[in-house]
Amino acid sequence: MMTYIVFILSTVFVVSFVSFSSKPSPIYGGFGFNVAGGIGCGIVLNFGGSFLGLMVFLIYLGGMLVVFGYTTAMATEPYPEAWTSNKAVLAMFITGVLAELLTACYILKEDEVEVVFKFNGAGDWVIYDTGDSGFFSEEAMGIAALYSYGTWLVVVTGWSLLIGVLVIMEVTRGN
Amino acid sequence: MNPPIFIIIMLTVISGTMIVVTTSHWLLVWIGFEMNLLAIIPILMKKYNPRAMEAATKYFLTQAAASMILMMWIIINLLHSGQWTVLKDLNPMASIMMTTALAMKLGLAPFHFWVPEVTQGISMSSGLILLTWQKIAPLSILYQISSTINPNLILTMSILSVMIGGWGGLNQTQLRKIMAYSSIAHMGWMTAIMMYSPTMMILNLTIYIIMTLTTFMLFMHNSTTTTASLSQTWNKTPLITSLILVLMMSLGGLPPLSGFIPKWMIIQELTKNELIMMPTLLAMTALLNLYFYMRLTYTTALTMFPSNNSMKMKWRFECTKKMTFLPPLVVMSTMLLPLAPMLSILD
């Protein structure tokens, strides 16, 4: 199973995206969001990015999604819609899950699949230890490069985050 | 809006576009587009009515979807070429989809449906920024990938845009919607020439921005948003009446005004590349555009539109709006044709 772990995690990732894309109430959607975040962390971990995967848990799930959860709790409605509450949400959910399962079965059955790029069945999702990255992990070197050579990128992303907050406040200010 | 916040937000809109225009890394292109989008949302929502909120939401959704498509194909291009540099040799499939994503951002047909509705829902000055500044970033990326764009795709989109810009604007009385359809048609002209001579696209963009800027400023001068209220400008500011006449003729692409320069150059470049039907079709459908500009001219400057007698006798107050740079802009939008021989420096 460990050879196909990335493939399995990707499939469950898509299913959890379907679970909040079928638009239940935000409380239930938030649950799907959390699961998706955790699985995304797992996928990143499997590619060797241990620091970034745990950053996903810490900052994304533990920071941003917690704030999302609190604001959703403040804006809650008396009769929230779950996935089986009305037929539209259920139909969308079933459609999404069915599409994903059919895609997964197609990938597993056929030897070679070409959707946008060719890959050989599920075997291409396996991470072999190709290439000699030396004693340092590439991911940690990438983060180090961000804070040394990539100062401009830090400035741009930091400014974008600040602007995100200012824009949200300006939009919700009203009057 | 609170002045310091307004300054910061305008700064971000400008720097977002500048990042897209000047960068050589695909990730920064996407970041620049997102910065631009995020910061322009409060500008679109300057007035807090539901119409403006709806327009800002529509703009956000379409542009965010386009950015997502662009990002996906940036990553697939990375998969095939192994590097992040914005070069001219893209994977062909990535080039097609990136062109589609950028066409969604520009408002080219068949992705033009958001342009009239968003432009109508926002204030005149926000519409000005939307139709002029926001076109610079996507067109700069199209300029950079122009040698690998699929001809069938881009020429289809451009002919469709000119046609839809012409026919769509015919039944409009709201000035912002007229300007939106005018923008769709001009984008069609710009993308038609992009594959053959990207420099002419820049020329068209420059002259289009100058003309649209002037038009919006003249509309803002009297706070007119409909044809009916524009038809009363002879009473409020007679000078604007004659300026609207000249400007509409320039927008329609009539010689001897500057609006003729891009059309002339584009038709010349297209015929040099042995396309005959295409510039014929473009020129003929541009006449539809000219028809509704003529209608505006007719009601504004050439006839006295029906109104009550009390509307024919108004006090003439001095305009308190700060119309920076308007006289030079009017001159540039109408009198640049004699300078057209300077384009020979391009050879």
Overview of the structural elements:
Chain A is mostly helical and 175 residues long. Chain A folds into 2 domains: 2-130, no CATH class; 136-174. In chain A, 69% of the residues lie in helices and 2% in strands. Chain A is built from 6 helices and 2 strands, in the order ααααββαα. In chain A, strands 1-2 form a two-stranded antiparallel ribbon. In chain A, β1 (113-114) and β2 (118-119) form a beta hairpin. In chain A, α1 runs antiparallel to α2 (26-46). Chain A is flat. The mean pLDDT of chain A is 85. Chain B is mainly α and 347 residues long. Chain B contains 16 helices and no strands. Chain B has helices at residues 3-22, 26-44, 50-81, 92-106, 114-121, 124-132, 136-144, 151-168, 175-193, 198-221, 227-230, 233-236, 238-251, 260-272, 277-302, 326-334. The longest helix of chain B is centred in the first third of the chain and has 32 residues, at 50-81. Chain B is globular. Chain B starts with a helix and ends in a 13-residue tail after the last helix. The mean pLDDT of chain B is 93. The chains are: A mainly alpha (175), B mainly alpha (347). Chains A and B meet through α6 of A and α1, α2 and α3 of B.
